[in-house]
Amino acid sequence: MNDEFKQNVYTLIGAIPKGSVATYGQIAKLAGAPKHARSVGYLLKHLPNDSTLPWHRVINSQGKISFPTGSEKFNAQSFKLQAEGVVLLNGKISLQKYLWR
Predict the structure, then answer these.
(1) What are the TM regions of this chain, as residue ranges (predicted)?
(2) Host domain of residue 49
(3) Predicted TM-score of the model (pTM)
């Protein structure tokens, strides 16, 4: 994973507007590496604790939060999304309604 990819990923995530979400694969594709969705997840997992990047706006391709349901991280991401007006129904986010385009 090169620095250019990493910088592109961070820039793209920073551009996701409040109330919208993007998928790991979408970010990877826009960053120029369409088969590297897992790399996007890796970069987010290793963000510094004081990062202001809106990591919570990145979800999986099924419209779900990737953390285990009920975990501390799941609850934090769910809370942040709901605070921005993103609705979770049965643990899923409507990509049709909230996907960043």
Answers:
(1) none
(2) 3-98
(3) 0.94
